[in-house]
Amino acid sequence: EAKIQDLVPEPDAAALRRSIEYHLKYTTGKDPSAATLTDWRLAVSRAVRDLVIAPWFETTQRVYTEDQKRVYYLSMEFLIGRLLEDAILNLGLDDKLRSIVGNFDVDYAALLTDEPDAALGNGGLGRLAACFMDSMSTVGLAAYGYGIRYNHGLFRQSFENGWQAEEAEDWLRQTHPWEFERPEAHYPIGFGGAVSVDGAKATWTPAETVLAVGYDTPVPGWRGRWSNTLRLWSAKPEREFDLEPFNRGDYMAAAAPSVLAETISRVLYPDDTTAQGKELRLKQEYFFTAASLADIVRRFLAHHDDVAKLPQSIAIQLNDTHPAIACPELVRLLMDHHGQPFETAFEIARGCLHYTNHTLMPEALERWPTDLMGRVLPRHMALIERIDDHHAKSVKRPESVKILDGGEVRMGDLAFIGARRVNGVSALHTELMKQTVFKDLHELHPERVVNQTNGVTPRRWLYNCNPALRSLLNDTIGETWVTDLDRLEALLPLADDTAFRARFAAAKDTNKRRLADHLKHSMGITLDPTAMFDIQIKRIHEYKRQLMNILHAAALWNAIRQNPEKNWAPRIKIFGGKAAPGYVMAKLAIKLINDIGATINKDPAMAGRLQIVYPPNYNVSMAELLIPAADLSEQISTAGMEASGTGNMKLSVNGALTVGTLDGANIEIGEAVGSDNIFIFGLTAAEVAATRAAGYDPASHIAAEPRLAEILEQIASGAFSPDDPGRYTDLVTNLREHDWFMVAADFSSYWDIQSKIDEAWHDRDGWHRSAVLNTARMGWFSSDRTIRGYARDIWNAGTAY
Ligand code: 26V
What we know:
Blueprint: H1 13-27, H2 37-65, E1 70-74, E2 78-81, H3 84-91, H4 94-103, H5 108-113, E3 118-120, H6 124-138, E4 143-148, E5 156-160, E6 163-167, E7 180-191, E8 194-198, E9 201-205, E10 208-220, E11 227-237, H7 243-248, H8 251-263, H9 279-301, H10 310-313, E12 314-319, H11 326-337, H12 342-352, E13 353-356, E14 367-369, H13 370-376, H14 378-393, E15 404-405, E16 408-410, H15 411-417, E17 421-424, H16 427-435, H17 439-444, E18 449-451, H18 458-464, H19 467-477, H20 498-523, E19 532-537, H21 546-562, E20 571-576, H22 584-602, E21 610-613, H23 620-626, E22 632-635, H24 647-653, E23 657-660, H25 666-673, E24 679-680, H26 685-693, H27 698-703, H28 706-716, H29 729-737, H30 743-762, H31 764-777, H32 783-795
Parallel strand pairs: 1-4, 1-12, 4-11, 12-13, 13-17, 17-18, 19-20, 19-22, 20-21, 22-23, 23-24
Antiparallel strand pairs: 2-3, 5-6, 7-10, 8-9, 10-11, 14-16, 15-16
Helix pairs in contact: 1-2, 3-18, 6-32, 9-11, 11-12, 11-14, 13-14, 20-31, 21-22, 21-28, 28-29
The structure holds ligand 26V.
Keywords: Allosteric enzyme, Carbohydrate metabolism, Glycosyltransferase, Pyridoxal phosphate, Transferase
Organism: Pelagibius litoralis
Protein name: Alpha-1,4 glucan phosphorylase
């Protein structure tokens, strides 16, 4: 039997060159002498894309003829980043293209970075979905990703005088060469209106309807041996244009339907902290969920006739509660369109649906006012009530497990009740789910909650972003690690090999110089690549405690000034991340980092000792530069609050040592790399809960830690903000009196572990040994392992590789 990868025509350089010339001329309509860098990039992208088409068709065909179980991953966010370099490296075309493009007299590196970074997500949840797409193709699982084709992804961040400023992002301004519009795959999606009931039959007549139009992007796995589809929905009006107002001369009114409809897929919500009950957000959720389910049911019925068999043929994964409306929507389709009675419809739907929880933070759990839900989705509101009653009747103590509570629909409870399996994303997080938010539901349905610890794709996050380490690994242990990351264990004995350690350290040095060059060009700053690169990159959130990190920097500044000749480990603290535009505290933390940074950076006594760097607009592409250059990875959330983390995995597998709390996947990372190769500090999740229960008093911790007391006084008195001395009054008061995230409680142990890290840094051999052991022991955190876990424990679906 032919392997799908045999269908990737072995691309000889001459054919590739001709294909690029062809696309430049006939697809882009440009002559080489007039072509811009972007024209060349589009031509190269098309030439590469052509090579993915054969395996893509072949995969689709094989899944269809073998009637393989299909997995549908429904996610409001796919944070995919750039696609060209990823595709080139997956297909093994890097060397060939570098020389072909060079021969056209075009800068290959510049061509790759000309691609805008597709930022259709906020952070961890969206990037996980992108890693899963890569892994599902690489392990050969029949899968479709479904999401929204936002016209504007996550905002662009800049700093104005140290404050975050936001600008609309515009990735579709240029042609997006990877997608295929599917005008034939369109579905009308209704909103509002009324429901009429005739006996057992309900008919929903929506007040407005928009069209969901699909755009497909092939997702090639490693070496193109399999290729799944990412289908993103764009909202279009049913009629582009109203002729009647146009004829009257009212041109605005003529275009109104199109403006209204297109609003639904216009922009990604940039707030991943609070679930405010915004009508447009609910419409986005229903829009993409309903379009996806219509598409899924249509594909099923194209070669099956009995909807009762849906659960054998398909598995749907809900990425958090954002698509949780899938439960009543599928019940609605089965009842109103396929004549199933309610209870059968509900059991079929539940047999198909699975739900992943990504956060326990109460303010991020979605709840929709019942009046809003009833107005936007009247048929669904009625079905949710019915599902709630049906479930309550089947259990003891029904009052503790109601979906409808205080005039709101609790989407987590709906998702739990409507799902066959519910999973957390790290061992700790799954335990906390069972003990806290889903305690009552878990007791009623003890088989439902399972754990699937997150992972990251080793293609993008090691092979592609770290060419220096990639070639060392390939030279040393061969290339099989790319699809079997446990093979990194072959490095274990080499941790004690001086020559290997030196090569490993040299790769790190190369990556640090690459980052230093980049920051020189983009920000005009100079970094000493021999200093420790101490990196915290993630969304700005109080619970992630960027504040504690910058307080540590300020305390270090005081300590170094007092004792400049001490053997300080030279450190460059690098921050990256965006704050939700409405998150006042997070934006103030950004300003504080920039204020403290400016003070430290201009102090000549800090030269060669301490520096603060915060490049604006952290995104996937910047992560690809920062992660391979990190020596120290900051994973310092208040224990119990970071569901898993995935940046922690990327940094460790690239040879950074972690300083972290016992939170999320840090715990499992510590078990894997060994306690000698990670720096763990702070309260445990149980201690955090107990401290809170006993009545936490930050003032006593501050009084007991003069270093912390001193910097808080400095900050409060305006030492870092002489232009506005009162800027941080509230922030400091909050730390002194409330400190929900327990910065004061953990500060001493954070300071102490950072001092140990300074000592460890001076033992260069010891540090590099630990770095090698981090890489060697992180294989388990491949998202290939995670996906095989979902396939086995949740989806009951097969994999070809
Ligand atoms: C939440 C919300 C709340 C409602 C409004 C819009 C919105 C948009 C995004 C989110 C996502 C927050 C949840 C999230 O990203 N969780 C992260 O998921 C990662 C993948 O499982 C995990 O590694 C992180 O620890 C977790 O914070």
